[in-house]
């Protein structure tokens, strides 16, 4: 049964003298850059918890139901089934890293992956990335990461897929130059401008309700462009307004 996050390749258990963790196991920025359609990030309230008979490798196994009210990654659902577990110690420093249990009525920021468990698609929360929200507020360091999705170093195509899955929508702009034409023809209608010199830096714009996201890339062609930065800036108003026909 896929119950533990070691199965998800978030960690590599070393002998008893140490536990080697991938950065995506404990760093939300690194987690965001993992290329996977199974990632989820949302805030939800625990509305149901059921303890079930655990398999031999676990000390505790919970069926959990979350009522989500804000999404960043994953397909928004009205109700989210999840599993929480406590594993039996195996004698390494990794023991306890993946233990995750909840109580009814708690509110959580959940970051994890969707997996098939007992024939059902459920979320397996990451214990080190997920946070219980006792005061209802996100810690500032977490809020800052969630405000601007982290895609630095990713290929543009992969970053765009993650951006759209996160609920952002392309924001078409009118100020396009010749260097931006290959991106526009490839379907990137949100491309604003490309420098056409040096690394051919380009700007792409996205919107999510009242929020803005500008993505900066380097590369002359869509298939080779890499994301070098992302900011919560909005484009200038005249960039979003179609230019009038010549002569007016």
Strand content: 35-45%
Relative helix content: 10-25%
Give the oligomeric state: single chain
Question: How would the global form be characterised?
Answer: elongated
**What integer value in Å does the Rg equal?**
21 Å
**Tally of helical segments:** 5
Write down the secondary-structure element order. Answer: EEHEEEEEEHHEHEEEEH
Total beta strand runs: 13
- Cα distance, first to last residue? 68 Å
Main sheet characteristics? 6 strands, antiparallel
Mean pLDDT, all residues: 82
List low-confidence stretches: 1-17, 243-248
Question: Which structural class fits the helix and strand makeup?
Answer: mainly beta
Features:
mainly beta, disordered N terminus, 248 residues
Give an overview of the whole structure:
This protein has 248 residues and is mainly beta. 13% of the residues lie in helices and 37% in strands. The chain has five helices and 13 strands. Strands 3, 4, 5, 6, 7 and 8 form a six-stranded antiparallel beta sheet that branches. Strands 9, 10, 11, 12 and 13 form a five-stranded antiparallel beta sheet that branches. Strands 1-2 form a two-stranded antiparallel ribbon. A hairpin with a 2-residue loop joins strand 6 and strand 7. The longest helix has 10 residues. The N terminus and C terminus are likely disordered.
